[in-house]
Structures are given as structure tokens and as C-alpha cells.
């Protein structure tokens, strides 16, 4: 069953007298429980595509469906509500809140959900911290842990609301080789255990090598797709 479907999606940005066609008629279908990479040079449209799927932007033309809902029709409030309930995000620069502890950073998305009992909130946070190997660091602040640990916390935060889809923009760019593989392995484990779909925008060959499906973008168009039958 499709989790994401794009139909003839175009995105045009206007800056003064300059018109930029960021996406040019994208058609795409991604199934649930997938591990997908968007690759291509800077300016190819990878991040724009991720932003449209993540309800952070709207298409100029075409339709974007996430879980059979046309998200391009949402207003700002509806987009925010949909993101909070259905999507997780992992960023290159981690985007942890510096004044919150590791525990509080992971808990934060749950505070946006209505009527979630304290015990369930606590159970979810501790379960995810255990999954990413950060339970013993839960009282520390972001400036007291390493880059790899920050990204593990970011993964836990992205997953704590039980989203079907996690979008990751260059999530390993600031990590060393060994740490990057650890983070990728954690994400793969989450796909296998929880059925989470991960979509990456990346230049990192480590992620590309582990992806099940690879879409190559150039100048706003998908120029190649590779579907791997088995994970490495």
C-alpha cells in the first residue's frame, strides 16, 4: 500500500525577476515500511521534495498525498497538526533544544499531543532512549554529549510519536564514519521493528549503500530509480 504518492508535482520559486523551477513534474509512489534515499547534486530538488512530503511547503502544481491525504491542500494550522501526529524529522544539525535535557528533548513532541497520560509519555520516552542507547545520558543537556549521541537523541525524538514516516535531511553529514553507520543501523532497526518508513535527502554514500530504493534527481527531475531486492 502506498504511503506517499506525488502526481505531476511542480515547484516554482520566484525571487525578484528570477524564476527557479525546483521540481519539474515529479511522479512518485513510495510504499509503507520503505528505506529510501533521494540523491543528486546540490540544487537538484532533494530538499524541496522532502519539504513537500513533510508539509513544510506546498506544490505550485500537482498533488502530494501522504497516507491517502492530500497534504498540499492544508492551511498552516492543518499542516502543523498533521506533522505532529504523523511525521518525524531528523536534521543535519540535530536541532535539539539546548535548555532541555536529553529526556526532555525526546518528550517534547509528546507534549503537543492531547490527552496523553503522563505514564504513557514516560514509557514512550524511556523505550526510545533505550532503543538508541541513550538511557544513561537522559539527564544531560545537548552541550554535554557528542555529535553521534545528539543524532541518536534526534532519532528517538522523531520516533516517539509513533509516526509512519520519518524524513531525514543529511542526517549523517556531521558524523564520523563509524558513528554514521551506528545511526543508520538504528534507523534500519526501527523500520524492521515498528514498520517506520525513512526517506533521506543525502549525499552520503553510507546511507545510499544501505537504502532499499534510490531516486536520483537532477535539475528538479527524477532521472533514475533503483530498487534493491535485498538490504546489504
Topology record:
Layout: E1 2-15, E2 18-31, E3 35-39, H1 46-53, E4 61-66, E5 69-70, H2 76-86, E6 87-91, H3 102-107, H4 118-131, H5 147-159, E7 165-169, H6 177-194, E8 197-201, H7 205-210, E9 213-218, E10 221-227
Parallel strand pairs: 3-8, 3-9, 6-7, 7-8
Antiparallel strand pairs: 1-2, 1-4, 4-5, 9-10
Helix pairs in contact: 4-5, 5-6
Question: What Rg, in angstroms, do the CA atoms define?
Answer: 18 Å
Percent of residues in β-strands? 25-35%
Give the distance, in angstroms, between the N- and C-terminal Cα atoms: 24 Å
Q: Largest sheet, described in full?
A: 6 strands, mixed
Structural class: alpha/beta
Known CATH architecture: 3-Layer(aba) Sandwich
By CATH reckoning, the class would read Alpha Beta
CATH topology: Rossmann fold
Number of helices: 7
Extract low-pLDDT stretches.
Answer: none
Give the CA-based shape: globular
Q: How do the strands of the widest beta sheet line up side by side?
A: 6-7-8-3-9-10
Average predicted local confidence, pLDDT: 91
Please name the fourth-level CATH homologous superfamily: P-loop containing nucleotide triphosphate hydrolases
Helix/strand order, N-terminal first? EEEHEEHEHHHEHEHEE
According to DSSP, the number of beta strands is 10
